[in-house]
Amino acid sequence: MKVLVLSHQGRYERFASKDAPAYQAAELVFCDREASEEDWLAAAGDAEALFVTPVTWVRENLMERMPNLKLIHSEGVGFDRIDLEAARRRGIYVCNNAGCNAGPVAEQAVMLMTMLLHRTLWGHRMVLEGGQGKAVRILEGDVPQDLSTVTVGLVGFGAIAQETAKRLRVSGSKVCYYSRHMKNAETEAAFGVTYLPLEELTARCDIISLHLPATAESIHMVDRAFMARMKPGAFLVNTARGAIIDDEALCEAIRSGHLAGAGLDAYAPEPVPADHPLVRLAHECPDRLILCPHQAGITQSSFCNVYRMLFENLGKLMVGERPDRVVNGL
Questions:
Q1: Total domain count for the chain?
Q2: 167 is catalytic
Q3: Which residue range(s) make up the domain with 32?
Q4: Is 229 a catalytic residue?
Q5: Fewest C-beta atoms under 10 Å: which of 49, 53, 256, 303?
Q6: What is the pLDDT of residues 163-174, one digit of tens each?
Q7: Interatomic CA distance for residues 98 and 116, integer angstroms
């Protein structure tokens, strides 16, 4: 089975299991994801499967010109740049690797929470400026909270949010969650979480952490009204997708002091330009906004999981079975 891969060949060579039957049976054709669609088609327009990074656009026009295509697979969790409806109409499975990076992204989310609470960027700057003693005196007069004294609200409760809840529970945090489907009592007890309606969650929690895919329902879900409901002095953490947040509204909330700060690892658009409102705000408020380059899922364990899941699904396709983690309703 021919597979067009719009990603880094070196990662496949390093992290994919060469013993996987599907890896051995597949004909992998690598092409630069920054190349044109014409280049992709020239390389492997007859491919039956397409592997793409989560930030690669896969539009209807490309599907129309790949007549043998049966599977489009995101290498990560995100799939918002794939035309799901066009693929569904053509009977093409669209799959992701949900859960592949849950642990590392949860680590990043908790790290951002901790850095915000402990005023880490401010402390770093104070030391560089020779103000360590002054910084300690300021903290002694305005003692910050830590994870054991705060209530964290998780918006969404999939694999990453669940891993985040595990880590927060160890730290002594009170953890609440909101999702469209409330979990059963056994699941809530296992993760040490309490369900709250979204409006109550935003009003009661010291930190709001986002764990949602970018869908028509979630785009700009965190808007002015959402942030106005948040507890004064609260923090916002986003390790999910940038499109969930109305960036201008977030900038206003931080400038006004209603929110104490934010830690972000996702943006809209990506790659984030130097003149993006959040980048400008980070220069304006350097101690209150932590900007990471969408790095949370880029770890060795994540990549091992990615390529295991990719080739497990490819193997299912090869024998005529429905793959796992189908996201377009087929």
A1: 2
A2: no
A3: 2-100+299-318
A4: no
A5: 256
A6: 999 999 999 999
A7: 27
